Amino acid sequence: MSLVVGLDIGGTKTAAGLVDPSGELLETATRPTPGAEGREAILATAAGLVRSLLREGVTAVGVGSAGVIDPVRGVVVSATSALAGWAGTDLRGELSRGLGLPVAVDNDVHAHALGELWRGAAAGHSDVLLVAVGTGVGASLVLGGRVRHGAHAVAGHAGHVPVAAAAGLPCPCGGQGHVEAVASGPALLGAYRRRAGTETPGGLAEVARLAAAGDPVAAEVLATGATALGQAIGGLMNVLDPEIVIVGGGVAGCGEPWWGPLRAAVAAETLPALRDVPVRPAALSATAALLGAARLALTTDFGGPGPE
């Protein structure tokens, strides 16, 4: 039986999983990502995790990585400062040479979408919009069962859609007024701390608990961010016409005080023909990107230049 290893390289954690062709996750391994130590350390950590899972029958490796990834060349086009020196890395070439196996690579949010499409909340659909809300806001568009990357490999940067609630707020990309500046996890937590004048040692999870318990400040902060995100998602739906929208990431765990305003905003923005498009939570949590990366390895024709 052919086996593959899926690899998820994030800003804080790198995980690897041994996966069979049915999508069964047989074994996993995880280590902190040494992002501050630079490219060589990040690659060494990733390769070490893959080697720890290698066994007879492993035929390829699939990688979902943070950053803008060119899946045709297998190169990191750009990345945030969380991964020092990551931009410009020949990710496919470096790992393939080091491991002696063919390697397919893509952005981690695209890998997340492939995982949900294969074994998660989007199974059975071919036209899917996935939105991941955590440290940032990212998205992936799947049309006809295939991830679409765009002309410059940056398709899916939903966090940089302008929204009124973020007017004047700085975005991590260097711009202003983007939805990530008001809807991401750090943005929500920062807004609550400013409004409430407390450090909330429990982080965003504590804010969500307070909102569920009726705290008006916590509820308003979550509703503001969720409404802005819902407006952006509704606009994207009008352009992309998906069968289903999947929303995942850590912020999606904030419960009904977040989901209620999100769904209301989506409904207010979408065209009548799209009002019945389901907006559902992701089903696979932390394993989505691993399974999606594995799926990439299983479906890539390594005799060609790589996925479109």
UniProtKB/TrEMBL annotation:
A Pfam short name: ROK
SUPFAM superfamilies, A to Z: Actin-like ATPase domain (SSF53067)
Source domain of life is Bacteria
User: So what family is this one in?
Assistant: Belongs to the ROK (NagC/XylR) family.
The UniProt entry, under PANTHER family, shows: N-ACETYLMANNOSAMINE KINASE, ROK (REPRESSOR, ORF, KINASE) FAMILY
Protein's recorded name: ROK family protein
- Organism this protein belongs to: Nonomuraea bangladeshensis
Where is the organism placed in the taxonomic lineage, from the top? Bacteria, Bacillati, Actinomycetota, Actinomycetes, Streptosporangiales
